[in-house]
Design brief:
Layout: H1 2-23, E1 51-53, E2 59-64, E3 71-75
Antiparallel strand pairs: 1-2, 2-3
Length: 77
């Protein structure tokens, strides 16, 4: 009986010691996502009130294209 109690106590102790190891994040993680690319004039956009800056620092507005259905990034006048 004493051997069973001793082995049960050891098993419980080992289980409790392993709990912090289970909660730790993995040592390797995915690299951070690259920064989003800047839109260019003529690229499609989704928000009709959207404003962005291209890679050259020009301000772009999301405006309807000539037909009025598609939205495209256009340089600020």
């Amino acid at each position: 009986m004493r051997a069973r109690l001793s082995s049960a106590l050891i098993g419980t102790t080992l289980s409790l010691l392993a709990l912090p190891l289970l909660a730790m994040p993995p040592a390797t993680s995915a690299p951070p996502a690259p920064p989003a690319s800047h839109p260019r004039a003529g690229d499609s956009c989704q928000d009709p009130k959207g404003v962005a800056v291209d890679s050259d620092g020009h301000t772009l507005h999301c405006n309807p294209a000539g037909s009025g259905h598609a939205l495209l990034w256009q340089l600020q006048p």
